[in-house]
Every structure is written in structure tokens, then in C-alpha cells.
Write a structure and sequence with these properties.
mainly alpha, Growth Hormone, Chain: A, three-stranded antiparallel β-sheet, 3 strands, globular
Length: 411
């Protein structure tokens, strides 16, 4: 039987804990801390990205290999999505999150004191692995609230996650410019400790439904992906959207420096302005709770397509202010689709939310990793115009894929 160990029991079928029926709603403070935690954990993936030119020479990484430091962190995250997030269906959630955060703290400290490339690469891999604790918190929150409020609550938490992703790069630039790149990792380690202490005090224990070993849980994920079409579709939608998102934020700094002559600090301010897209998350959650998943999904895909195509014109015309608006639009669109998609998948099988979220996020993350690679190739091949066309095409492709779902349902 599933239970949140605050004196509240699950329903007989294990579909929802009693807290979700209003017996004891999660406090605003708890939800705020979880939102901050997901954002801070996700930010760990991106701190090093704008600092490669500074980190590489100091620890002996050749220029041609410096970018692999970020890739190693993302590889660690991908491994964690599959092997750690799936544990949420087996291990008590608060314990799992706190262990992940503890591992992350040690890895961040290791990165901060790394004297050479090898220790830093190992630390970066573990940072990515431990940071997937964020994706344990998201399905955990969905257990605490009733169905009618799930989209709004998940949306609020995801707003914190996206904000962390978007402010990580400008924050690391600002901190490193004053205190050096190692201070960025120390700052994050201290933040992880503070958040972990808050979660220890505020986070209720959630004991997942038993019955499966870890080996069987991992083996069952293949069957889940095969047998749940909506999970595959939602994963594919977000993979395309996250691919476009990473295309934008990988190539945009290059375009801003080349076409507008912006300094690193000004590019950081541009990225900070783009974080306004996180405000779409609570709105997305409310739309999903009102049954507007379909229209919200189509709108998000259209926003990515239109937004990307428009950036091509804005960059050519030198319209920097318009580019800021379009960056917010693209970020909001990706967040909109993310929230409504998680609202859908978290309604499928409550006792398997850890595995379902692991499959969904792994699929999405693969798309994001491809986006970074595609952006580098497209920008060097055809400049921002090629990147804008490519990102817009991804939005159109997502819309076409979504249209096939609608036709299938109609049939």
C-alpha cells in the first residue's frame, strides 16, 4: 500500500494518498522549497558551460576537448534519469532525494578543488548523476495533491526548475568574473546543503508501493515504454521541444557576440531576461487542470515554430529587444508543453510515477542533447539563419506529429 507517512494512508487501490484528497495539503513553504530545490539541482548541469574557456587552460584541458566537460555532466544526468529516478518506485522519496543531494555536494566540492582534468571529469559525471534528484521531487509532489490541482502544483515546481536552468549560465558568469570559476561550484555546494536541511525538516516521507526488486523495476521500464502510447508520444513531443530549446541557448550566445558585439556580461543579462519564460509554468498547470491539454500542446508547438522563424528576421534586422521577447516566448512554449505533458503522464499509474517520469525525462533529455550538437553544426554551417530555420522546423514537426494523434483519436 502506498502511504505518505504523516499519519495518512493511501486509498485501497493505491491510486492516491489521503493527502491528495484534502486531509492535509502540502504547505506553501514546502512547495516553495521543492521548487527552489529542483531549480538549484538542474542548474548544476549548466554552470560550467559558459566557463569552459576559463576552466580549460587552468586544469590542462585542450581547447578541442573543453566542451566535453559539459557533455560528461549531461551523460551523468542521463544515467541518473534512468537508474536513479526509477528508484523512486522502490526507495522512500525523502531518503532518496537527500542521498542524491549529499552525493551532489561531495561532487561539487570535488570539482571546486580539482587540480587536473581527470578529477574534474569524474566530479562532473557525479554532479550530473546526483542532480537527477530534481526528477524525484517532481513526481513526489504529484502524490501530495488531488487530481484537480495536480497540473497547477507541478507547474509551480517546474517553474523553479526552468528558472534554475535559465539563470545558471548568467549566474556562473557573474560569480566567476568576481571570484573565479571554482567559487561557482563552492556556492552551489553550500546551496545544496541549505536546501537539503530544509527538505529534511519539511518534506514528508513517501513510501512507494512495494513488490518489485530494483532489477525488475529497471526491466519493467522497457515494457512501460512499449505498452503506453501516450507516454511515448509525450516523450517525443518534449524531445523535439527541448531539442529546439537547447538549439536556441547553445547558438544564441554565439549570434549575440557575432552580430551584436555583446560582451559575456551582456549575454548573461540576455539569458537572465529569457528566464521570464518560466512564468508560463503555473499558467500551463492551470490550463491542464481545466482539461485544455490539447489546445495548450498545439499552442506551445506553434509558439516554438513562429518564435524561431521570427528570430531569423530579428537577428538580421538588429532588433535586439525583439530577440529578448522571442527568447521569452520560446522558453515559455517549452515550459508549457513540459507541464501539460507531465500532468498527463502523472495521471497514468500513480504507483509507477518514478519509472514513468524516468522514461519521459530520458527521452526528453536525449532530444536536448541532440539540440546542443545540432546547434553547433548549424551555426557554423549557415549562421543564425540556419539555426532559426532548424528550430522552427522542429516546432512544425512537433505539430505534425501531434496532428497524427488527433486523427487517430478521431478515428
Amino acid at each position: 500500500m502506498t502511504s505518505i507517512e504523516t499519519g495518512l494512508n493511501a486509498t485501497p487501490d493505491g491510486s492516491a494518498p489521503a493527502a491528495a484528497h484534502g486531509a492535509r495539503a502540502p504547505s506553501r513553504l514546502l512547495l516553495a522549497v521543492i521548487g527552489i530545490a529542483t531549480g538549484a539541482l538542474a542548474a548544476n548541469l549548466y554552470y560550467a558551460q559558459p566557463l569552459i574557456a576559463e576552466i580549460g587552460p587552468e586544469i590542462g584541458i585542450r581547447p578541442g576537448l573543453a566542451g566535453t566537460l559539459v557533455s560528461v555532466t549531461q551523460i551523468g544526468y542521463a544515467l541518473g534519469l534512468f537508474f536513479l529516478v526509477s528508484l523512486a518506485d522502490l526507495v522512500e522519496s525523502r531518503k532518496l532525494v537527500l542521498i542524491a543531494m549529499g552525493v551532489t555536494v561531495l561532487a561539487l566540492a570535488g570539482a571546486a578543488i580539482s587540480p587536473s582534468a581527470a578529477p574534474l571529469f569524474i566530479a562532473s559525471l557525479v554532479i550530473g548523476l546526483g542532480s537527477t534528484g530534481a526528477q524525484v521531487l517532481v513526481p513526489f509532489v504529484s502524490h501530495l495533491v488531488p487530481e484537480a490541482q495536480r497540473g497547477r502544483t507541478v507547474g509551480n515546481v517546474m517553474a523553479g526548475l526552468l528558472t534554475g536552468i535559465l539563470i545558471a549560465r548568467p549566474l556562473s558568469l557573474f560569480v566567476a568574473s568576481s571570484f573565479g570559476w571554482r567559487s561557482v561550484f563552492w556556492l552551489s555546494a553550500v546551496l545544496m546543503v541549505a536546501i537539503g536541511m530544509a527538505l529534511f525538516r519539511l518534506m514528508p516521507r513517501y513510501v512507494p508501493q512495494g513488490g518489485l526488486s530494483y532489477r525488475k523495476i529497471l526491466a519493467s521500464m522497457v515494457g512501460l515504454a512499449r505498452d503506453i502510447p501516450v507516454l511515448r508520444r509525450r516523450g517525443a513531443y518534449q524531445a523535439l521541444m527541448f531539442c529546439a530549446f537547447n538549439m536556441f541557448w547553445t547558438a544564441a550566445p554565439l549570434m549575440l557576440a557575432d552580430r551584436f558585439g555583446l560582451s559575456q556580461q551582456n549575454i548573461a543579462l540576455f539569458a537572465l531576461a529569457g528566464a521570464g519564460g518560466a512564468l508560463a509554468a503555473p499558467i500551463a498547470g492551470r490550463l491542464a487542470d481545466r482539461g485544455l491539454v490539447g489546445p495548450a500542446t498545439a499552442a506551445a508547438m506553434a509558439m516554438v515554430a513562429i518564435g524561431f522563424f521570427a528570430t531569423g528576421w530579428a537577428a538580421s534586422a538588429g532588433a535586439l529587444a525583439l530577440l529578448v521577447v522571442l527568447a521569452i516566448l520560446i522558453d515559455a512554449a517549452v515550459q508549457l508543453n513540459q507541464v501539460v505533458s507531465q500532468r498527463v503522464i502523472f495521471s497514468l499509474a500513480p504507483h509507477m510515477r518514478g519509472r514513468i517520469n524516468a522514461i519521459y525525462m530520458t527521452t526528453s533529455f536525449i532530444g536536448g542533447a541532440l539540440g546542443s550538437t545540432i546547434a553547433t553544426a548549424s551555426y557554423h554551417w549557415g549562421g543564425w539563419t540556419a539555426t532559426a530555420i532548424g528550430g522552427g522546423a522542429l516546432g512544425v514537426l512537433a505539430l505534425l506529429l501531434f496532428a497524427t494523434e488527433k486523427r487517430t483519436k478521431a478515428a
